[in-house]
Amino acid sequence: MTALFLRDLKLSIRAGGGALIGVLFFLTIVAVIPFGVGPDLKLLSRIGPAIVWIGALLAALLGLDRLFQAERDDGSLDLMLMQETPLVLTVLVKCVAHWTATSLPLVIASPLLGLFMNMDETAIAATMLTLLVGSPAITFIGAVGAAVAVALPRGGLLVSILVLPLTIPVLIFGVSAAYAAVEDPAPFLPPFLILIALTLFFAVIGPAAAALALRNTAD
Question: Of 57, 107, 150, 161, which sits with the fewest C-beta atoms within 10 Å of its C-beta?
Fold first, then answer.
């Protein structure tokens, strides 16, 4: 499992620019927002957590279609299906490696982008914390879409279409928790705990559903 994690980590970084492309796309989305909404610093500060979350969500979708594509191309997907190690565990390790290579850099870059949106220290810290907790759920959801579309020659757009609606609850509670940390009357803990619960839920359901989809694709 350690060798698989390191292998997938290297592949995720090398393929298409990996983490660098995601961070640049994240930066582009957040950087153009002030040009669209105008120079109102109060407005930018108010919508900052939502914009950072949306940018991170869209950037995280970039490489999901490649989650199982390398194994499909070189034939190692068949070996994964036949090995003694449970396929669910293999998919889980691949999801963790993919999140480490693509989504974790987005979390690290989020404080810098929060400054672009004129967010204060509390809002930046809350947004970074919610991204750290909630972004793995996006990867686990994306694994299902990637497994469904792995046999298609151009499944990248299909993965985004399948995954995006399922990530809406993660986006809602992630943004709600970030706003709650800034606004004193709104408690931070309830939406944050729901966000953690969503990540744990999809950590169980996502790899299992992706493993089932991979087996059906092979059949």
Answer: 161
Q: Is 73 helix (H, G, I), strand (E, B) or coil?
A: helix
Q: What is the pTM of this model?
A: 0.86
What separation in angstroms does the CA of 74 have from each of 36, 69, 70, 188, 211?
44, 9, 6, 47, 18
**Cα Dmax for the chain:** 58
Helix (H, G, I), strand (E, B) or coil at 133: helix
Q: Which residue has the tokens 């914390």?
A: 129
Cα separation, 89 vs 32, in Å, equals 40
* Spatial separation of the C-alpha atoms in residues 26 and 23, rounded to whole Å: 5
CA distance 118 to 197: 30
What are the start-end ranges of the E strands in the chain? none
Task: Please say whether the beta carbons of 89 and 208 come within 8 A.
Answer: no
Q: Which amino acid is at 128?
A: M
Taking the chain (219 residues) in runs of 10, the rounded mean pLDDT of each run is 67 61 84 80 86 90 76 68 78 87 88 86 92 94 84 67 89 92 78 95 92 76
